[in-house]
Amino acid sequence: MTTFGTTSIQPLASPERPWLGLRAYTLATAAYFYGRDREVDELYRRIRLEPLTLLYGKSGLGKTSLLGAGLLPRLKVEGWRPVLIRLRFDPDAPTLLQQVQDELAVALETSAAPMWQQAFDPERRKAVDLQRPVLIFDQFEELYTLAAATSGTEGAEQRRDRRHEVAQLMAELAAVIERRPPASHSMSDARSAAIGETEASEYDWRESALRIVLTLRDDYLHELERWKKLIPALMRNRVELRELRGPDALDVVMLPARKGSHALIDAEVAHRLICFVADKRDPATPLEDIDAVPPLLSLLCTELNEARLHAGAEQITLGQLLQGEADQVLERFYQRSFEGMPPGVRRTVEDLLIDNGGRIREASSRDTVVSEMRGHGVDAPERHLAALVDGRLLTVEERGGAPRVELTHDLLVPLVARARDKRQSEEQRAEADQRIKQVNLQLQKARQEQRRSRLLSIAMTALALSSAALGWTAYQNGKLAEARAEQITQEREAKDAERVRADKAERRQRLHQDIANLWRSADTISNDDIPAITELRLEAQDLQDLNALENLASLVNKFSTKFAANQRAPRTSTPPTAPTGAPISDLASVQPRDEAPPNQDSAALNLISQELSAMRAALAMLDQTSAKSGVLQALDEASLARSKHKLDAAAAAYARALAAAKTYAQFAGESDRWGQLMSADIAREHGELMLNGLNKPDEAITLFEQSLSFARQLKPDDRTWRLFAPLQPTAYAFRAKGEPEKAKEWFQRAYEAAQLTEGHNGLKAGQNGNSLSTLINWGNFLIERGEHAGALARSQDALRLYEALRRVDPTNTWISERGPEALRLGAKAHEGLKQYVEAISMFEQAIALSSKQQSGDPALPVGVNIATLDGLFCLARVLRSKGDEARAKDELGRTKGLARRYLEVLPNDEWVKWLSREIEALESGRPTAQQVVDAKQNAAQLRDDGKLADSSLAYSNALATAEKYAQSAIEEDRWGQLMAADITREHGELLLNRLDKPDEAIKLFEQSLDFARQLKPDDRTWRLFAPLQPMAYAFRAKGEPEKAKEWFQRAYEAAQLTEGHNGLKAGQNGNSLSTLINWGNFLIERGEHAGALARSQDALRLYEALRRVDPTNTWISERGPEALRLGAKAHEGLKQYVEAISMFEQAIALSSKQQSGDSRLPVGVNVATLDGRFCLARVLRSKGDTAEARAELGQAKALAERYLVVFPEDEWVKGLLVEMERVESSADPLEADQP
To answer: Residue 1183, Cβ neighbours under 10 Å: how many?
Structure first.
C-alpha cells in the first residue's frame, strides 16, 4: 500500500526510452503517460461528486496505469491526498480492515481509527476535510481471488476468518459511503465496534471529504454486486475503462516519443504500428476505425525502440515493421512470459487455448485451465494464471456466467502455434528415440536367441525394419526441428552481432552500475561519498539520463531520511536492500534543512541536502528544457502556417505550443512563471485565430477563458495587460455566436479592467489606450444593435478621454487615429437618433482630422485612407437623409474620387471596391448593400421582439430589396443573391417554428436553395445545405414522414460533400454530425429504432473524429451527449435495457461536465443532463430496478428545480418537472409516457 509521494523502486522512462512495455505507469512516469485524458477527467469529476467511485474494465486495459500516472497526479494538483492501496493476503499481513485503517491514519497523520470515525467524528473529520484523502483500492478483485485462494488452502477456521475479514471491510466501507453507523454483526473488530443511537447522534453524518475508489476487472463485477444490499450506492457511480480509440492510441505512440531532442518515431510509422496491433490489413485504415489495447501497443513500441537503440538509429523505421521485427518483438515477449514457471504452465496454454490448425479456440473456463495445470504437475496454478494475466499474455472475461481464459490478442496465436509445434516436435523426437532404444533392446535379445529358431530370425528382421522406419521418422522430425531452431538462433545472433554499443551507451552502463554499487553500501555513507554522488549526478546530467538521475535522487533522499532519523533513534545495523530498478521519490516533499541534526552525521546531512536540491533542479531543468524548446518550435510552426494562410495547421501548432507551455509550468519553480505567461499569450492568440480566421467562436471563448486563468497566476507586472487583452475578443466571440447581451457584458468587463490599469504618461488610472479602444469598439457594437443612445454615451466618454491622452502625448500616432474613430461613432449615433445637424457636424470634424493623417501604406497620399472614405460616404448619406441632395451629391463625388485614388495604389482592397459600388448605387437611386443589411436586421429585430407578423412582412420587404440589389449589380457581384438566400431561409424558419405555416415555409426554403445555386462555390456550399433539415421538419409538421426522411437523407448527402473539419476528409464535419443526430431523433419518433441506432453509431464515430482534431470545441462537445442519448433511446425502443442504461450513463457523465448557455447556471445543470437522467430513470424502471429508478428520478427533479431558479419560465423544464412529480406520486412510477 502506497500513499502519494512515497518511493517506489521500478524502472523509469526517459526521453530515449519513453515507453514502458507491459509495466504499469506510475507517478514517477506520469510525464510519459498519454491517451487517457478523458478517462482521468471523468474519474476526477465523479470522485468530487460522490463518496464512492467504481472503475472497472477488461483485464489488460491499463487500470493500474490510469490510477498511478493519470488519477494520482490529478488529485494532488487539485488538492486531494490520494492513498493507493493494494491489500495484502499473505499469512503475516494484518487483517484487511487494519491495513486500510492504518494506511488512512498515516495519510491523515493521526491515530488509527475506523474509517467512519475518521470521516464523521466531529474532531477527527477536521483532518479529513483538510487533507481530503482518497482511498484508491487497486485490483479490488483480489478480495475474491487471493482471499478465496488462500482460504482454500487453509483449515475451516482460517477460511471463516478470511471471509469475516472481507465482511468487516465491506461493512466499514458501507458506513462511510452510506453515512450511517456500522452494523454490529459485521464489526466485531475492537476498533470498529458498533455504536448505539445515543452515541450515533454525537457524530456529524454530513458528507465528508473522504472518498473511496474501487478498481477491479469487469469479470468480478458480479462478486461486488453481492454487497449491493449493504451498500445501495455501490454500482451507481461507475466508470468503465474501454479500449483506446485509434486517435488516442496515436497519442500513446507519438507524444512520449517527442520528449527528447528529436522525435523517435514519425506519424506514418506510428499509424502503421497501430494498424499492426489492431490487426488491420490495410495500413491506411483511418484511426477512427481502430481500437488498440494499450499494453500491447506499449510493448511493441518498447521492443522496437530497444532495437533502434542497439542499432544506433535516431528513429524507429518503417523497415523494422516491414522486415518482421514486430513479430520478433512478440516472440521475445512470449518466451519471457514463462520464465521461472513450471513447464506444465506453458504446455497448458499451448495445448488448451489454440487448436491443431493454429486457430484460437473458444475461451476455456478458468476452472478448466487451473485443472489442466494441476494435471501437468503445476503447484499453485492460480498464482501462475494470475501472473500470466498480469503480464498481459492471457486475459480473463466473464462469458455465459463463468470466467473464461484466452490469449490477450490474436497476434499471439501464430507465436503460440509455432512454439507448440516446436515443442511437440521435440517431444516426438524424444519419444521416437526412446522407442528406438526399446527396439534395439529387443533386437539384442532376439540376436541372442537367433540360433534357436528361424521364426525368431524372421521376427528379428521385422523388428529391424520397424526400428529403421521409426528411426528415419524421428531423424526427419528432429532435423526439421533443429533447422527451425538453428534458423531462429542464427537470425538472432546476426542481429545481436550488428548491434555495436556506442560510447554513450557504455557510459550509461557504467553510470547505472556505480549507482547500484552505492545502493549496496548505503549504510556506510559518509562525507567522503558526497563528491562521488555529485560526480555521478553531473554525468547523468551530461548524458541527459533521467532514469539514472531519478534513481540517484531517490538514493540521496533515502540517505537524507536516515540521517534525520538519527536525531531520534540510534543507527540501525540492518543494511538497506539494493534496488532492482530505478527508484523515484517525490522530490518536492524533501526540502533542504536550515539546521543539521546535532550528531556526527550533520555535515553529511548538509551536503546531502544541498546535493538533493541540485538534483531536483537538474530534473526540472531537463523537463523544462524539452518543454521550452517545444513551445518555441510550435510557435514558429504556427507563425509559418499563418503566413501561408494554412489556418488549420496554425491552430494545431498553437495547441502543441500550449500543451508544451503547460508542461513547462508544471516543472518550473514557484518563481518561474514563464510557462504561465506563455500559456496566457498562446491561448489568447490561438483564440483570436479561431475567432477571426476559422470562425469558431465557441472554441475561441474556451481559449480566452484559459488565457485569463493563466494570467491570474502571473506577477502584477505581467498580469495586468493579460487580464485585459482577452476581454474584447471574448465580446466579439459572443457577438459572432449571436448572443448580444453576453457580448455587452464582456465589453463592460473589458472597460472595467482597463479602468484598473495604469494611466498613460502620468494620467490617473484608467486614462489609457485600453479604455479608449474599448469605448469605441463597444460603441460601434451598440450601433450595430440599434442602441444609439448607448453608443452616443460611449462616444462622449471616448472623446473626453481622447482629448486627455492627446494633451499628454500629442505625437502618438495611435492616439491620433482614435480621434476620427470616436467622432464617427458619435456621428453615427446622432444619425440613428435622427439628429442630423449634430451628425453632420461630427462627420465633418472626423473628416477634418483624418484628412491630415497618413495611411498605413506610405504609397498613399496623406488623407487618402479608410477613415476619410468612411467619413465622406456617411456624411453624404446623412445629407441625403436631411434632404440636402445637392451637397450629398458633391460629397459622393469627393468619396468616389478618393476611392479611385486609393484603388490605384491598392487595387485589391475589397472594402474600398465595395464602397465604390455603394456610391454608384446611391448615385443611380438603386438599393445599396447597407439598405439590404438594414432591412434584414430590422426583420430579425422584430422577430426577436416577438412581433412575428410584422417580422414576416419585414422579411418580405428585405427580400424585395435584396432582389433589386441583385438585379442592378454587375455579373460577378453575387452578394444580392447571397443575402436573398439567407433572408428566405430565415423567413422560412420563422414561418415554420413560430407561425406554424409549413406550406409557406417549404416554398421559402425552395427559394433559398434556388438563390444558393447562383452563388460562387465558397458561398454556395453551406447555403445549399442549410435549408435541407428545416425542409425535413416542415414535411414532418405537415404529417408527411416519408418526405421528411427523404429530406434528412438529402441533408446528409449534402453535408458529405462539404469540407472536412480541421483537415479531416470531406463529410467529416459538424453539418454531418447534426444531421445524423436530428435524423435519428426523427426516426425515434417514428418508432424506427433500428434505423435510429444506426444513425447514432455513425454519429458517435464522427463525434470521436471531430473531438480528436478539435478537442476544445464547445459545440462539438455538446453533440457527444446528444449522440449517446439517441443511441440509448434506440436501445430502449429495442428493449435492450442494459445497453440503454450504459449509454444514458455515458451521456450524463459528459453533459454533467458542461456549462449551460447561461453562466448563472452551475456546470452540469443543463437540459441535456435533465433529459438524460429522466430517461435513465425510465429505463431502469423498465428493467425492474425500481429503487435505482426512484433515486435517479430524485436527482433529475432536484436538477430541474435548480434550473428553474434561474429560468423560471422555461416551458420545457416546467413540463418535465410536472411529469416527474406526477410519476413520482403515482402507484407505478415511470410507466407514464415520456413528456
So the answer is: 16
**CA distance linking residue 277 with residue 326, whole number of Å:** 10
User: What pLDDT sits at residue 752?
Assistant: 92
The SS3 call for residue 854 is coil
3-state DSSP of 527-584: HHHHHHHHHHHHHHHHHCCHHHHHHHHHHHHHHHHHHHHCCCCCCCCCCCCCCCCCEE
> In the structure grid, which three cell numbers stand for residue 615, read together?
538534483
Q: How many degrees, rounded to 5, is the angle at CA 1079 between CA 1077 and CA 1081? A: 70
Contact 173, 228 (CB under 8 A): no
pLDDT of residue 4: 33
d(C-alpha 339, C-alpha 1148), whole Å: 46
- Taking residue 855's Cβ as centre, other Cβ atoms within 10 Å add up to 19
**What are the φ and ψ backbone dihedral angles of 600, each rounded to 5 degrees?**
-70, -15
Nearest to 115 by CA among 170, 50, 197: 170
Closest CA to 213 of 268, 246, 261, 176: 176
Cα radius of gyration rounded to whole Å, the chain: 38
Nearest to 1 by CA among 133, 153, 196: 133
> Cell for 1159?
453562466
Contact by Cβ (8 Å): 46, 237: yes
Question: What pLDDT does 157 receive?
Answer: 44
Counting Cα atoms < 13 Å in the Cβ hemisphere of 60 gives: 23
CB atoms within 10 A of CB 737: 17
pLDDT of residue 625: 59
- With H, G, I as helix, E, B as strand and everything else as coil, classify residue 1010: helix
pLDDT of residue 24: 76
Cβ-based neighbour number of residue 1230 at 10 Å? 21
Local structure of 54: helix, strand or coil: strand
Residues in a beta bridge with 244: 292
Looking at beta carbons, which pairs linking 725-730 to residues 24 or more positions away fall under 8 Å? 725/684, 726/683, 726/684, 726/687, 727/753, 728/773, 728/774, 728/777, 729/684, 729/687, 729/688, 729/691, 729/700, 729/704, 730/700, 730/701, 730/704, 730/705
Distances (CA, A) of 352 to 362, 370, 941: 10, 11, 75
The CB-based long-range contact list for 876-882 (8 Å cut-off, 24+ gap) reads: 876/922, 877/831, 877/922, 877/930, 878/827, 878/831, 878/836, 878/839, 878/840, 878/843, 879/840, 880/922, 881/831, 881/834, 881/836, 882/836, 882/837, 882/840
Residue with cell 457524530: 203
Cell 492504518 appears where? Answer: 102
Q: What is the tens place of the pLDDT at every residue in 1158-1206?
A: 667 888 899 999 999 999 999 999 998 888 898 899 899 989 988 888 8
Q: Which three cell numbers stand for residue 1174?
A: 429522466
Segment 661-664 long-range contacts (CB within 8 Å, at least 24 positions apart): 661/627, 661/631, 663/31, 663/623, 663/627, 663/630, 664/624, 664/627, 664/628, 664/631
* Helical residues (DSSP H) of 134-289, grouped into ranges: 142-152, 156-178, 197-200, 221-225, 246-254, 267-277
The CA-based angle 630-635-640, given to 5 degrees, is 130
pLDDT tens track for 864-886: 999 999 999 999 989 988 999 89
Looking up cell 457577438, which residue turns up?
735
Q: At a CB cut-off of 8 Å and minimum separation 6, what does 1080 contact?
A: 1091, 1092, 1095, 1096, 1099, 1126, 1130
Reading the block at residue 155, the C-alpha cell is 483449515
Q: What is the pLDDT of residue 227?
A: 85
Sequence-distant (≥ 6) Cβ neighbours of residue 400 within 8 angstroms: none
Q: Which string of DSSP letters, residue by residue, matches 946-996? A: T-HHHHHHHHHHHHHHHHHHHHHS-TT--HHHHHHHHHHHHHHHHHHHTS-
Q: Which residues, given as ranges, of the chain have pLDDT below 50?
A: 1-11, 149-160, 184-194, 323-326, 400, 455-460, 463, 500, 567-601, 1227-1235
Burial class (CB in 10 A: 0-12, 13-18, 19+), 803: exposed
